[in-house]
Amino acid sequence: MNNRIRAVSRRTFLGGAMAGAGTIAMPSLVRSQDAYPSETFRVVIPTRQGGGAERIARAFDAAWSQLLGQPFEYEFFPGAAGQIGYEVFVKQREHNGHNLLFGNMGPEMIMYATQKPDYKFPEDYIYFCRTDVDDSCVFVRKDSEFQDIQQVVDAAKQRALNVAVSRIPHPASIGILALGEQTGGTFNLVPYQGGNPTQVAVLNGEADIGTLPIAGILQLGDQFRVLTVFNKENIFAEQTNNAPPVNEVFGTTIPDLYSSRSWAVHTNWADENPDKFQKLVDTSKQVFEDPKFLEAYEKTGAPVEVIKYGDRETCTEYALSMVEFAQRYAEILSAEKG
Amino acid sequence: MGWDGALFVELIGNSFQLLWVIVPAVLFGIVIGALPGFSASNTLIILLPLTLTMDLDVALAFMASVYASSHLGGGIPAILVNMPGDGGSVPTTFDGYPMTLQGKGQQALVLCFVASTIGGLITSLATVALLPYLAPLGLYLRSVEMVVVMVFGLVLIAAIASDDLLKGLIGGFFGLMLGLIGADHIYSTPRGTFGFLELYDGVPIVAALIGLFAIAETFSMVEREAIVPKSETDIARPRWADTIDGLRINLKYWWQTIWTAFLGMLIGIVPGAGATIASFVAYQQSRMFSKTPHLYGTGHPPGIIAPESANNGVTSGTLVPLMAIGVPGGATSAVMMVVLQYQGIVLGPRLFIETPALAYGVFFYMTMSYAVMLLMILPLARYMSKVVNMPTRIIVPLIITLTIIGAFANREYIFDMWLALIFAVLGYLALRTGYHVTGLLIGILLGPLFEQYLLRSLRLGQGDLTILFSSTLANILWVLVVLSLLLPWLRTRQTQRALERAGDTARSGL
Amino acid sequence: MAENNLNSPADQPRLESERPAVGADLIIPGLAVAFTTYYLIGTASLTWEAKANGVVVGLLLYALVAVQLVRIGLRIARRETTLGFGGLFEMTSPQKQRIALVVITALFIVTLSWVGVAIGLFAAMFASMWALGERDWRSLIGVSLGTTATVYLLFIVFLQLRLPRGPVEYVIAWLTGAGA
Q1: CB contacts, 8 Å: C48 with chain A
Q2: Chain C closest CA to A24's CA: distance in Å?
Q3: Which residues from A are below 8 Å from C156, CB to CB?
Q4: Domain-located, residue A58
Q5: CA distance A78 to C50
Q6: Nearest to A22 among C45, C46, C180 (CB)
């Protein structure tokens, strides 16, 4: 139950007590400041342990840590829809290029727009390496009464359907709201604070349907049925029994709604250290050609097709578009009245 | 099902072969569990780089053993110095610490060890036998049912405050109010945080329990020479007699051990629920069915057995959804999932057909670790219990400094150290003025969980309050809640009447 | 034993002299009401879901405190009790020790970031034991040193906790680093 997890990995453990003591304070005293990277990367993940972000980050680091020559440590801050993670990253972590953040840009930019936290994008941090494009999908459990998305919408016109979502500020949640708006159905969002509990809510039947990024659903294979995706095309047609894209069924104009994880670093550090930053950018791009990454990712059972590189520009554009979305749906997404 | 005699023999053999990793892991887990602020989950994350390089069997045996034994370790400081290591061992302090104060620390430890290990043993064996049937069971307890389960825990606030109900309720409601600090469960908007980022996630449980229980208690300890002065324990040397006495009491309450273990396992199977809920509910249930509810809180053995057996029942239960559905039920199983996925294991229903040795293996290793625990820890009880004879001028500074560091350890915020100190002062004031610290803490621990399930249920009901009474299971549980409030009261009245009648007869006889 | 209905492990039998004065009984309700009021004002602008529990729990808490006030008021009117603080704030020897412990712990937390855990912990242990009346130099130094060394090895070296570092930690790191 306690999710306030302090997470650390890749630290030397059995290297002997003395060796351990030696490595702890070395960076600031012994090692040269010029070489980069010169110490372990410390990564803030603003979602839960065992979630989609960790799955990609660990697979990514299997290749990236070798290209950079330094290991990665992870810390998880799922609280307040990820706000805690970002605030810790911007305010409490040293801006030295060894502190990174690996976040899910979509939901976290929506959170940024609705909660108006005490940091600024892109002034305080920038996303520089998108790792995936994970389309939002609508899914039901295997033995659900709903065979396709048309039946779902028909039912939603009769009664409000309960939809399990990870967070209210999430692209998938916006997708289902938009679907309701354009088809006249009513969807009642129930947030479960994470993909895993959301899946359980659909499995145990307390929610009629669920909507999440598709990779995690496909990972659990035969327990769910995907009914539609919020994208122009369904790249997983084969694994999802040809579930059609949502606009194709209803002639709606719902924009592509996907989750994209990305690495982020402090803006001022990147501006002041262009060479070092370039090294991060170049090596991170290289990872996508490294078989180690794809192998490690494939092992998790999630589909490799979602893996897609995106540079700083792509990330910034996407992030800002999410803010725009959030503002359009501000009233439903925020607890503040009026 | 892929399940046959040969596999059974193979897995037993494997468990014995893996003793080399199980034994040190158990020792390590006990230490981790006993240290406030450390838990199996955050320690296993630190050790992830190590476990990722191990063979899968070895890694699973290691993690299962650390996890299981950490639950046992938490009971030790809870009993001896009123310092619960985590939420799950809080109810252990209710009767464990009073037993220590009565000079029966060693018996209390034995009760805790035996209840923990037996509870853990039978539930992990039961899991092996019933695994495919257990998984769907967890899906029956949904948000609505969990609201009622939470109410079971919350009624303890009223139950333990029998000496001054009003004060007890004020303490409990204050705790509930503090439990509402943090981001709301629907929109993630921070509430009542005084602007502290550190409170966005709610009141950190470790800081609260360290302050309210461990440190607040040291402020009272300073009035004594030792927690238990040597003169009050009849013999200074460690001896077996008390251990045997503890075993005797255990035997007397064998049924209690078994049913609370299964209660813990059931709660463990529900994804998201965990040891804290399980041990509170077990304590509450044990008190409800007891013929002597008024003895709870005074150093009554079942008051130790119930929560300890239950929180060890949770350990095997919590692995069920991970293995059977592929969804981790809690923080520790999330770490295990990372390791399993790293090795390319696809979790879910197919696991039992495709790799039964792996699916069942982890429960065999857990069973083995409980057996190891029992043999290893029992002889140590007689030495551990001597801690309480240490002079307070040494043990009090030790408790304070170690717990303050423990408050930091959980999230690595200096802020949490301050919070622990503030809670200590608050706890001491509550203690001295008769407002229940226990009620306060129950509010802080269970309040946020209750709010989460309640709001979720109300959302699901789309504003209709009757959703809380919409399922048969929930309604049965509601009836039990009402019973659990009435039964102890009726029993106490009955006893009082009997006493009065006895008194009358005695007087009239004179 | 059955008669002794102590329901909280932490419950201490109160001193007889404290009983008549109930002023201290108002501390916790006072804090509770203050916090509840702060909470309710802070969440007033939110939608009902974000504040429903707060409102329900808060109002019940107000009601309970009101009953408590009436109860105390009646007892005062009946001259059964006074509004003093009883023995709670009396400067007895244990009371001075308690205050010393709180102050030492606070100082430990304040200075931790600068002096590091080794020096801070040693000093806090030493000072706390002294405040509680330990005067044997061997115990004072031995226990403080032993605790610090254990914490250093267990928490920092083995469990890799990021406790604040100070001069001692850097020197040890430098020595072992140079040795390696």
Answers
A1: none
A2: 7
A3: 21, 24
A4: yes
A5: 19
A6: C180
pLDDT digits over A77-87, tens only? 888 889 999 99
A142 and A120 belong to one structural domain: no
* Local structure of residue A96 (DSSP, 8 states): S
- DSSP one-letter code for B433: T
User: Given CB atoms, is C156 within the 8 Å cutoff of chain A?
Assistant: yes
The verdict on A26 touching C (C-beta cutoff 8 Å) is yes
Instruction: Calculate the CA B372 to chain-centre distance.
Output: 21
- Measured CA to CA, the distance from residue B169 to residue A248 in angstroms comes to 58
Q: Across the interface, do A9 and B45 touch by the CB < 8 Å criterion?
A: yes
Facing B177 at nearest CB: one of C36, C71, C129: C36
Secondary structure letter of residue A82 according to DSSP: G
Write out chain C residues lying below 8 Å of B218, CB-based: 101
By Cβ distance, the residue of A8, A25, A335 closest to C169 is: A25
Asked if residue A154 and residue A250 are part of one domain, the reply reads yes
Strand A41-45 with A99-104, pairing: parallel
Q: Which of C157, C168, C75 is nearest to C117 (CA)?
A: C168
Among the partner-chain residues A5, A6, A160, the one whose CB lies closest to the CB of B462 is A160
Per-residue CA distances from B116 to B155, B249, B318 (Å): 25, 14, 16
Going by the DSSP 8-state scheme, the letter that residue A226 receives in this structure is: E
DSSP-derived letter for residue C127 is: H
Report the greatest alpha carbon distance in chain B: 82
**Strand, coil or helix: C8:** coil
3-class SS of residue C70: helix
Q: A223, A240, A257: which is the final residue of a domain?
A: A257
User: B409 exposed, middle or buried (CB, 10 Å; 0-12, 13-18, 19+)?
Assistant: buried
Q: Within 13 Å and on the Cβ side, how many CA atoms surround C12?
A: 22
Say whether C10 and B220 touch across the interface (CB within 8 A).
Answer: yes
| pTM confidence score | 0.87
Q: What is the ipTM of this complex?
A: 0.86
List CB contacts (< 8 A) between B459 and chain A. Answer: 162, 188-190
All residue ranges of chain C with pLDDT < 50 are: 1-19, 178-180
Q: Do B341 and A49 touch (CB under 8 A)?
A: no
Q: What is the mean pLDDT of residues A171-199?
A: 92
**What is the CATH number for A158?**
3.40.190.10
AA identity, residue B427: G
**Chain B residue numbers touching A89 (CB-CB < 8 A):** none
